[in-house]
Specification:
single chain; 13 strands; binds ligand GBH; polysaccharide degradation; glycosidase; carbohydrate metabolism
Length: 478
């Protein structure tokens, strides 16, 4: 990136974590083993027409059986941290009641394997796979789901709190609420804007109750965080007042609806007003904001691409790029007068424009908004059309360039005073990319879906070198 100046130090702090991330449903497979029951993603992926090619996570990359090999690979590459998620329906099959020990044992073995290899585990409790029984009882639009999550958080905290220091309550609640309940491109596939706003509030409540439950059972040294897909927003025309107003509308619906209550103990007034035709927010009860506004030890930012918006006539046939498959339903409640655009220029295989400056902007924004709160980049990465060449190697120079560009912006932010403690590449290996099935490859490690054989791509080797040296190798060196 042009903006990274030569004044930026070449190296990252010694304690910087060089990680990779995954999530349970995307990699584990073994969906019927050891007492696990279906989650909303099992149901959704088995519903015809919901995922590309009808792909499901039934086998995924069989990590449940191959975790030792996967941990060994991470260690060989030189990674120092690994972020994974726990499958709720493996631990608590009905979403209620006591824990299934066989389910927890898998995560105990995984964590022990990581620690033996000197890799620091970070556990995400919820990466979109609600036990189906809880959805049958109403899912996230129901308040009780937040209490069920707190019980589940306590069970996992009791089981792993002695050996895992880094905890993340929820991954990207925006996706759970608005892709799951408004646009319907994610499980459970509902298209009800009012339900999606209720879901967002109950996810916030789940975060707060879950954070408190974790703290009540874990050693005080452990850190509790949340991972948000914070949007870097840009007006289509920077000089247009209407486009700037559209940025503020979407900023409330993308960022403020989560950061507001979690970091500041309040929803933006402008959000409550702009959605008042959809809901009166009567599900927001006295005391909820205090419960949500728990002390946090860190904030996780997931970043892929900026979001460009403009004002549009309501009802006009505007492009609606939600980057997650197509739907006639918008994931933005009450924002039918906003249009979404893609930046010109380079795109990844998802069609997402490459612009590392959005990551710098977000880091600096949250450095200002939450002074003193350590930040982690809990996801960043790209899908490319990777294929093994004749000698079986996988060369992915575009991914190396993507990682180099984004890590350069992280380093620039650190030089400018941001407290970024680590980076988790999305993803360790190719996996089930939700509605896109196995069509999109985000891995630094290539997976042959016939043999399930793993092959590090050149980006994995490049990233491993960065991890070992604490500095970014020149992209053209590999
Ligand atoms: C992450 O979601 C997930 O945590 C991970 O499981 C997944 O595999 C990975 O990214 C890759 O997709 O403004 O309407 O265009 C990323 C989800 C993608 C959500 C971009 C917001 C833009 C929404 N984000 N998206 S829109």
């Amino acid at each position: 990136s042009d903006s990274a100046t030569s004044a930026t130090p070449a190296t990252f702090p010694d304690s910087f974590l060089w990680g990779a991330a995954t999530s349970a449903y995307q990699i584990e497979g073994a969906v019927r083993e050891d007492g696990r029951t279906p989650s909303i993603w099992d149901t959704f992926s088995h519903t015809p027409g919901k995922t590309a090619g009808g792909d499901t996570g039934d086998i995924a990359v069989d990590h449940y059986h191959r975790y030792r090999e996967d941990v060994a690979l991470m260690a060989e590459l030189g990674l120092t941290a690994y972020r994974f998620s726990v499958s709720w329906s493996r631990v608590q099959p009905t979403g209620r009641g006591p824990a299934v020990q066989r389910g927890l044992d898998f995560y105990r073995r995984l964590v022990d394997e990581l620690l033996e290899h000197g890799i620091k585990p970070a556990v995400t409790l919820y990466h979109w796979d609600l036990p189906q029984e809880l959805e049958d009882a109403g899912g996230w639009p129901e308040r009780d789901t937040a209490h069920r999550f707190a019980d589940y958080a306590q069970l996992v905290g009791e089981a792993l709190g002695d050996r895992v220091e880094q905890w993340i309550t929820l991954n990207e609640p925006w996706c759970s609420a608005f892709l799951g309940y408004a646009s319907g491109v994610h499980a459970p596939g509902r298209t009800d804007q009012q339900a999606s706003l209720r879901a967002a509030h109950h996810l916030n409540l789940a975060h707060g109750l879950g954070a408190a439950a974790l703290r009540s059972v874990m050693p005080a040294r452990n850190a509790v965080a949340i991972s948000l897909n914070s949007s870097a927003l840009r007006p289509l025309s920077p000089d247009s007042a209407a486009d700037l107003a559209a940025v503020r509308r979407i900023d409330d619906l993308a960022n403020g609806i989560f950061h507001g209550p979690i970091l500041h103990g309040a929803y933006p007034e402008t959000l409550l007003e702009a959605t008042s035709a959809i809901t009166d927010w009567s599900f927001l009860q006295d005391g909820d904001l205090d419960l949500i506004h728990q002390p946090l030890d860190a904030l996780g930012l997931n970043y892929y691409t900026p979001t460009v918006v403009s004002a549009a006539d309501p009802g006009a046939d505007v492009p609606r790029a939600d980057g997650h498959g197509t739907s006639d339903h918008s994931p933005w409640p009450g924002a039918d007068d906003v249009a979404f655009h893609q930046l010109p220029g380079e795109r990844t295989e998802m069609g997402w424009p490459v612009d590392p400056t959005g990551l710098y902007e977000l880091i600096m924004r949250y450095t200002r908004e939450a002074p003193g709160l350590p930040l982690y980049i809990t996801e960043n990465g790209a899908a490319y059309d990777d294929k093994p060449d004749a000698d079986g190697r996988v060369h992915d120079p575009e991914r190396i360039a993507y990682l180099h560009g984004h890590l350069t912006e992280v380093r620039r932010a650190i030089a400018d005073g941001a407290d970024v403690r680590g980076y988790y590449l999305w993803s360790l290996m190719d996996n089930f990319e939700w509605s896109y099935g196995y069509e999109k490859r985000f891995g630094a490690v290539y997976v042959d879906y016939a043999s399930l054989e793993r092959t590090p791509k050149s980006s994995a080797l490049w990233y491993g070198r960065a991890a070992r040296s604490g500095a970014l190798p020149e992209p053209e060196r590999i």
